[in-house]
Specification:
alpha/beta, Quinone Oxidoreductase, Chain A, domain 1, 2 domains, 7-stranded mixed beta sheet, 18 strands, 27% strand
């Protein structure tokens, strides 16, 4: 049996600390399959992708063990696993891949049709679930479900990292840094001396800020409505901080939209100067529609780019980010606002929804019963 944070329903009203949509309970964890890996989870990050399932913006089956950004140690591997071995320190990735479908072939595993279906269905690749309570299946979140003491995942859901990488840093690598950093490095292909704006100062947006600075951006401005976070943003090295609609127009070479709401994307496009690139990594509600100036895109040669999971090779990218971290050029620890335990998840969801934090880490071992 393992302790896990289980989302019971997506229709609870806030504050979540009172309605308590997430309950920590003991679950049965199934045996490790041929290409599966069992991981002892150490640290997990709380992301808007988790919140969007809790608040119903992204409909997923329940009950579900949440969590997709995490780190831990491999404690068991299936007989066909090749990527990792027992004892390896790993970061999780929320984009597993089967290795067999056409999308996998053309994208080197960064896009997988079976994984897309499994993530929507709340299963692992192949349709299996490994968590249960009294013979009732409990669903997976993006094939990871890291808000648990232990989890079983497809081998492509973990990436080995060296033992000198702390678990808190390794956890951030799996989503915030892969997504935000990849928007800058792979999707925008930032060049030294370019001007950058980040719209949305969550963990993903601020990871994009750190990487843009590391790669030599002339300036990195941030747009975010939460005044309570402005001092934190300034401490991370933002050149200027603006409220929505206040940033200069026709000014930036790269704008990263990390807010996940329609108006943020709509107001980002006019901020670009001619030839600029707008990269959107936000995950809005499926019903969200936006209106963009068609002529502005064409006549000024602007690009609008969607980026998921960093738009690159996750294994190579993690190694690149770790090297920058070792050099002191990518201070990822500074993204963390606070660390809480599994039992504090509902209150942490409220803090995330109120936009008073950047990244909260979950110490999944904290609060273990004696």
């Amino acid at each position: 049996m393992v302790r896990a944070a289980v989302l019971q329903t997506s229709d609870n009203i806030r504050p979540y600390v009172e309605s308590r949509p997430v309950v920590v309970e003991e679950l049965t964890l199934a045996a490790t399959g041929p290409r599966m890996v069992k991981v002892d989870v150490e640290m997990a990050g709380l992301c808007h992708s988790d919140l969007s399932v809790v608040n119903g913006a992204r409909t997923r089956p329940v009950p579900m063990v949440l969590g997709h950004e995490a780190s831990g140690t491999v404690i068991e591997v299936g007989p066909e696993v090749q990527a990792v071995q027992v004892g390896d320190r790993v970061a999780f990735t929320f984009q597993p891949h089967c290795g067999d479908c056409d999308l996998c072939t053309f994208s080197s595993g960064e896009r997988c049709s079976k994984a897309f279906d499994a993530n929507i269905d709340g299963t692992l690749i192949g349709g299996a679930t490994v968590f249960s309570r009294e013979d009732e299946p409990v669903h997976h979140h993006t094939g990871v479900s890291a808000f648990a003491e232990q989890t079983v995942v497809h081998e492509s859901s973990v990436i080995r990292v060296d033992d000198d990488v702390p678990f808190d840093v390794a956890a951030l690598l799996g989503c915030a840094v892969t997504t935000g950093g990849g928007a800058i490095k792979n999707a925008a292909r930032l060049q030294p001396g370019e001007r950058v704006a980040i719209v949305g100062a969550g963990g993903v947006g601020m990871a994009a800020l750190l990487l843009a600075k590391a790669l030599g951006a002339e300036s990195v401005d941030v747009v975010d409505p939460a005044v309570v976070k402005h001092e934190m943003i300034r401490e991370l090295g933002a050149s200027e901080i603006y409220g929505p609609g206040d940033a200069p127009l026709d000014h930036y070479d790269v704008v990263v939209e990390a807010a996940g709401v329609g108006p943020a994307l709509e107001t980002s496009l006019p901020m670009l100067r001619a030839g600029g690139r707008l990269v959107s990594v936000g995950l809005p509600s499926p019903t969200t529609q936006v209106s963009l100036n068609y002529l502005d895109i064409v006549s000024k040669s602007k690009s609008v780019i969607g980026s998921y999971h960093g738009s690159g090779n996750a294994i190579e990218d993690l190694g690149y980010y770790i090297d920058l971290w070792r050099q002191g050029r990518l201070p990822l620890e500074r993204l963390v606002t606070r660390t809480v335990g599994l039992d504090d998840l509902n209150e942490a969801m409220d803090a995330l929804a109120d936009a008073t934090v950047m990244r909260q880490l979950i110490n999944v071992k904290s609060g273990d019963p004696a």
